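Onboarding guide, step 5: your first structure request.
Type a short instruction followed by the sequence, for example:

Predict the 3D structure of this protein.
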Amino acid sequence: MKNKVEKQVEIAAPVAKVWGALTDSGKFGAWFRVKLEGPFVAGEVSRGYITWPGYEHIRWVATVKEIVPEKLFSFTWHPYAVDPGMDYSKEEPTLVEFRLEATAKGTRVTVTESGFDKVPEARRAEAFRMNEGGWTQQVKNLEEYVLAAK
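The system replies with structure tokens like these:
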């Protein structure tokens, strides 16, 4: 089993515009489909609710790790934590990293989620499978959002 998910997308937009879509919590919420309670702050917990149809009961809880302007945005979270009756807080979270680099066409975004080997075995394969597919969709959502934004 793989330990990490990695997706890449090249967006025909300047790094600054893509960076804003990633790190402005309102813009992030629009494409990621989550209603966040406040801004992203390194070292602090970000909270909110998922707004994907059928998943509105799911709380968003992520700890912002690093914000390196126009280069790296990262957070930790519990992958595919969709059972509201389960306490995931005892599990080791995975690390999600968004890395940006300027290209001739605009901006390359590399999204990596690592640490699946630390997810409890009983839910590891499902969490990996769901997040692998989830990130495929989310990089499309990010690109569509950035290209549609004025």
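Each response can be followed by summary notes, for example: The chain has three helices and seven strands.
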